Every structure is written in structure tokens, then in C-alpha cells.
Amino acid sequence: MTKSAASKNLVLVGGGHSHAIVLELFAKKASPDANIILISDVDRAPYSGMLPGHVAGFYRFEECHIDLKPLCDAAGAKFYRDRAIGLDLENNRLLCENGDPIPFDVLSLDIGSTPAKSSVPGVEEYTTPAKPVPNFLQHWQNILDRVSKHPEEPIAIAIVGGGAGGVELAFNAQTRIQTILERADRPPSNLTIHLFHRGSQLMEGHAPLVRTTLEQILRKRGIDVHLNENVTAIEPGCTIRCESGLEVESDRVFWVTQASSPDWIANSKLATSDGGFILIGETLQSLSHPHIFAAGDIATMQSHPRPKAGVFAVRQGQPLFENLRNSLQNKALKTYIPQKNLLALIGTGDERAIASRGNIGFGPCGLLWKWKDRIDRDFMQRFEIDNPTP
Ligand SMILES: Cc1cc2nc3c(=O)[nH]c(=O)nc-3n(C[C@H](O)[C@H](O)[C@H](O)COP(=O)(O)OP(=O)(O)OC[C@H]3O[C@@H](n4cnc5c(N)ncnc54)[C@H](O)[C@@H]3O)c2cc1C
């Protein structure tokens, strides 16, 4: 469709899970008379469901990253590689790190979250946050290179945060490094993994059976689980100090704590929650600025708050697409209420997975992993474009 000069500007910020689906649906169902622009700080957006499996070496980079440019081409959208850094809400413009401000009629934000900044001394200098993902993967690759070159040298990895992200990272990091050690004929004992968690049990919000089973498996595999430990400092050389007096030396510390939102959102004058996330209603519109939509981790539904997890971002994709389209066409918006308990399939790094939904848990077993693998591969297949432009 040729866009007229009077066409509205729809600006999508971030190629997160919800926006990837929005673009896929625009590609399938033809975009309305609107100039659609995607601003993303990466060309290839990671898919969270397969990321732990990528750490383990089960999936190649391309298998768990969505190539945004061909997706935009198929959707009739322009792709700008840039980082959003602010909002000028008086003039409806998005401010970017490199390019000129971008005017919008309708804006949608799906920029994810990063582990919360911490006042713990040494965190900024000596730890690697699990997000942004490209930075995390670079550091992970450095570790793999080191172990491959010097498998004879013992290595200790510390993970701070015993939520799903930290637990999955512990399992999958161990799998990958032990594979390298095994190939080099070195004992698995050359690797030590420490997992620190402030609470008395891992994986808050999951079924009790899932929480205890995962802890048992971690311990059985020789991962040092430190519960009720409040990390109070990270010192040069990646030494971790805890309030209890526990002191652990490591070669690398991964910081996988609670999700947080960037400062530019808090400074934008959009209505935000206590944690700085954009408050949205059931139509996925900002509570303060109805021409602005938000989805995924960066948004908090005021009446239906849910955990910050990729599955919720995925589920918001279709309703976000419909409401963006309706909004551009001045049609009534639909309401969307997320399910209370979504099924989570958590990989244990050994091609098995455990199922968790509400108070019910099951596994781990290989069949659940196969099922998860199928779901994830089918999801990624949605974004395979037949004729990508060079
Ligand atoms: C280690 C770890 C493992 C996890 N494993 C799982 C799992 O197995 N299953 C699960 O459901 N959840 C998992 N999660 C949580 C999951 O990663 C998030 O809930 C999910 O990615 C949120 O999706 P999203 O669409 O909100 O944003 P994201 O997937 O984070 O995408 C946001 C995109 O926006 C881009 N972006 C960010 N800021 C800007 C900006 N200013 N300008 C332009 N572009 C920007 C980013 O580069 C990124 O591509 C995990 C999290 C961690 C830390």
C-alpha cells in the first residue's frame, strides 16, 4: 500500500517478543495506511525461551535470535538501528542516541528490562548483568574461550539471583563448560558454580514441588547453592562477600536479580509503577498517555500485574497488534486480560524440563524438554521470512 502524506506515524521501540509478533502480523495481514518504524538497538533480537539452551550449546545464535530487518521489510516497516533515550511528550517525539527525534502519532514500547541496579559496592565494576543480552553473551563467550584454551585451569562462576533466570543459567552454564572439559579430558571438578539467593527457597512464585525439586537437582549436580545469603559487596578479583560473613572467590560474577526499567522511562512523565515500569490498562495503553502503548517486561498492567517473563510478552503480541491497528484506524480498542497462571517449562540443562503452573509442578523429564523445544522452534519459525532483502 502506498502511504499518503497524511499517513499516521506508528513508532515501535524495541524488537522484543510482543513487537516481533506485531511485525509478523502486519506482514501477514497488510499494514494499514501508516508509516511504521521500528527503532531497535540490535539487528537480531534474542528469544528468551531458547537463550538458556543457547548457553548450554543446544541452539546456535541464529536459532534463538529474530532477524528484525527482513521482518520489518515484510511488514512494510522501516528499520532504524538506534537506541531510544527519551520522550518529548509535549511534541510527541522519540529521542534517539544517534538519529534526529522521530515524530509519532502512536507509539509502542517493548524494550524489555535489565537486572535492577544495585547499591551493593562493586556490582557495576565487577559483575556481568544477564541483560542486555548481547553484552552478556560476549562475556559468556570470553569464559568459553578461556576454558577451551586452558581447560587445565580451575574456574569458578558465581551467579547472584535465584529466580528462574539464575537457576537456568546455573544448569546451562554447567552443561556447556563440562562438555568442553570432558572433550579436553579434564575432570568436571575443574568447574565450580555458586548460586546465591537472598530467600530461603529458590524460584519465588513457582509451585513448591518445582522449587524443592530444582534445588535438589542443583545440589546433586554439585552446584553450590547459598540460600539466605545477602550479597553485600563484590570485591576486585570477583570475591563475593555476604552479610553472614560468607566470602567466596570466583572468576566471574553474573548478576541476575530482579527486573528494572531504564531511567529514561522514569523521567518521561509517563505514569509508572513503583518499580518504574509503564502502567498500562487492559487495552495495553499507557494510563497517562492513551496514544502510547507498552507490552512485555517494560509494562505493568495495573489491574492484572504478572511476573516479568517472556511468555507474558509473547501473549501480549496479538492484542497489541489489534489495538495498534484499531488505534491507527480510529476504531474501538479491545480489552485483554492475561491468564493468571501460565505454564512455564524450565530446562534443567540436560535436555529435560520441569513444568510449573500455579501450584502444580511435574518433572523433570525428557518429554517435557521435547515439548518445550517444539514450542520454541515453532515460535521462531513464525519469523522466518522467505525472501529477505540483502
Ligand atoms: C538469564 C535469563 C533467562 C531467562 N529465561 C527465560 C525463559 O526461559 N523463559 C521466559 O519466559 N523468560 C525468561 N527470562 C525473562 C525474559 O528474558 C523476559 O521476560 C523477556 O525477554 C521479556 O520480553 P520483552 O519483549 O519484554 O523484551 P526483550 O525480549 O528484552 O526485548 C527488548 C528488546 O528491546 C531492545 N531495546 C532495549 N532498550 C532499547 C532502547 N532504548 N532502544 C531500542 N531498543 C531497545 C533490546 O535490545 C531487546 O532486543 C529470562 C531472563 C533472564 C535474565
Explain what this protein looks like in three dimensions:
- This protein is an alpha/beta fold.
- The chain has two domains: 8-113 and 261-340 and 376-381, FAD/NAD(P)-binding domain, CATH 3.50.50; 123-258, FAD/NAD(P)-binding domain (3-Layer(bba) Sandwich), CATH 3.50.50.60.
- It has ten helices and 25 strands.
- The chain has helices spanning 17-29, 51-56, 68-75, 123-126, 133-149, 164-183, 208-220, 263-266, 310-328, 366-381; strands spanning 8-13, 34-40, 44-46, 65-67, 77-81, 84-88, 93-96, 102-103, 106-109, 114-115, 127-129, 155-160, 191-196, 224-226, 231-235, 239-242, 247-249, 252-255, 259-260, 278-280, 292-294, 299-301, 344-347, 353-357, 360-365.
- The strands form eight sheets. It has a five-stranded parallel sheet. Strands 11-18-12-13-14 form a five-stranded parallel sheet. A three-stranded antiparallel sheet has the order 6-7-8, with no helix packed on it.
- The longest helix has 20 residues, at 164-183.
- Bound molecules: flavin-adenine dinucleotide.
End-to-end separation = 22 Å
The largest sheet, given as strand count, sense and whether it forms a barrel, is: 5 strands, parallel
**How many domains comprise the coordinates?**
2
| Number of helical elements | 10
Query: What structural category do the secondary elements indicate?
Result: alpha/beta
What value does the Rg take, in angstroms?
A: 22 Å
Q: Strand order across the biggest sheet?
A: 5-2-1-9-21
CATH homologous superfamily designation of the largest domain? FAD/NAD(P)-binding domain
CATH topology of the largest domain: FAD/NAD(P)-binding domain
Count of β-strands = 25
Q: Bin the helical content.
A: 25-40%
The best one-word shape is globular
Mean pLDDT across every amino acid position: 94
CATH architecture of the largest domain: 3-Layer(bba) Sandwich
The molecules bound to the chains, other than polymers, are:
flavin-adenine dinucleotide
